[in-house]
Write a structure and sequence with these properties.
With 200 residues, this protein is α+β, with helices and mostly antiparallel strands. The protein has a single domain, classed as 3-Layer(aba) Sandwich (Glutaredoxin). A four-stranded mixed beta sheet has the order 2-1-3-4. A hairpin with a 4-residue loop joins strand 3 and strand 4. Helix 2 runs parallel beside helix 9 and helix 6 crosses helix 7. The chain is globular and about 40 Å long. The two termini are 20 Å apart.
């Protein structure tokens, strides 16, 4: 069992804005990460949430302001209305699942590269060529985008079920081995502090 189960969506802007912070926190504490991409729209519908376009205008406006502020604070390139959003999350999620199983590259970097492609580079992360490029950038065989589709689909669905069972309702979401839950990239500091407490 991993020290941190990381539930996220490959088109989640807040998952993008987390950057490499999770990996830095985990490295600091010698913690392992299990990457669990899931269908965020399905998660919302299962846990009482709404996709951004269906939210009250006040929430839509606040989200736009908050994302822009956070991107500026983090000095990250960010397009509030990317050309390919929303798009099908399954292909990029399957690639992450296949890469994590195959090993040999950097899964954290792969996740960040896919998210950056959507939110900063105007690329469609459902496109096979984009996925293959992201795999290669993270040190994986690009051919992984063509393999393990059945296992990827099964794991992708299982990640959603596990998320619902464990009280996850958004992305990014971090769950520690002792059941503590942290929602949002702005809670990584709290995750850091909790891991320090666990180490005594």
């Amino acid at each position: 069992m991993a020290d941190i189960d990381y539930f996220f969506a490959t088109i989640s802007p807040y998952s993008y804005l987390a950057g490499a912070q999770l990996e830095e926190v985990a490295s600091k504490h010698g913690a392992t990460i299990a990457y669990k991409p899931l269908d965020i729209a399905a998660l919302f519908s299962r846990t009482g949430g709404l996709p951004p376009k269906d939210r009250h205008p006040s929430r839509i406006e606040y989200r736009a302001q908050d994302l822009a502020r956070r991107a500026k604070k983090l000095d990250m390139d960010f397009n509030l209305q990317p050309a390919h959003f929303p798009t099908n999350m399954a292909p990029s999620s399957y690639a992450i699942i296949a890469a994590a199983k195959a090993g040999g590259g950097d899964v954290g970097k792969l996740c960040q590269t896919i998210l950056r492609a959507c939110w900063a580079e105007e690329k469609d992360v459902a496109d096979d060529a984009v996925i293959r490029d992201c795999l290669e950038q993270a040190g994986f065989d690009p051919a992984l985008s063509d393999s393990g589709l059945l296992v990827g689909a099964e794991t992708y669905a299982a990640n959603l079920e596990e998320a619902v069972e464990r009280g996850v309702f958004g992305a990014p979401f971090y769950v520690t081995q002792d059941g503590q839950r942290f929602w949002g990239q702005d809670r990584l500091e709290d995750l850091d502090a909790h891991l320090a407490d666990m180490q005594g």
